[in-house]
Amino acid sequence: MFIIIYVSKEKAEFYSGDGYSGMDYPMTDADINVAVIKINGRSPKVGYQTNTACKELLYIMAGSGILEVKGKEEKIKFKSGDVILLDKNECYAFEGEFEACVPCTPAWTSEQHKYVD
């Protein structure tokens, strides 16, 4: 059985915070969902963030930035056209000015998202 889920841009839910904003596209599929995010500066401002349940795939649509992973000295520089895969429980921070399309599997929820030192 094949099911098509269509979500128009008008149905996307806008959110924003200190240095970031995004559009969540509400899906009824528990296996995957998607958002388009914009980062302007460092996110989070201090420390790191993690997702306890899903993998996040970022396709960098515009701009550039740096990915910092907690406990690793190397910082990853990325730019428009690059792809980043973040595994669940990875602690990371972004810095830069970029826009990315971010599908998550299983579907991302705010309860899964945590800030850590």
What's the gist of this structure?
The chain has no helices and nine strands. With 117 residues, the protein is mainly β.
Number of domains: 1
Helical content band: under 10%
In CATH, what is the homologous superfamily?
Jelly Rolls
Separate helix tally: 0
Give the uncertain stretches in residue-range form. none
Distance between the termini: 45 Å
Question: What's the β-strand tally?
Answer: 9
In percent terms, what proportion of residues is strand?
over 45%
- Shape, principal axes of CA atoms: globular
CATH level 1 class label:
Mainly Beta
> What Rg is obtained from the alpha carbons, in whole angstroms?
14 Å
What would your notes on this structure say?
This protein has a single domain (15-112), classed as Jelly Rolls, CATH 2.60.120. It is built from no helices and nine strands. The protein is globular and about 45 Å long. The chain is mostly beta strands. Strands 1, 2, 3, 5, 6, 7 and 8 form a seven-stranded antiparallel β-sheet that branches. The mean pLDDT is 95. It has strands at 13-17, 20-25, 33-43, 48-51, 55-69, 75-79, 83-86, 92-105, 113-116.
Which properties best describe this structure?
117 residues, Jelly Rolls, two-stranded antiparallel sheet, 58% strand, globular
Write the layout of secondary structure elements.
Blueprint lengths: L12 E5 L2 E6 L7 E11 L4 E4 L3 E15 L5 E5 L3 E4 L5 E14 L7 E4 L1
Antiparallel strand pairs: 1-2, 2-3, 3-8, 4-9, 5-6, 5-7, 5-8
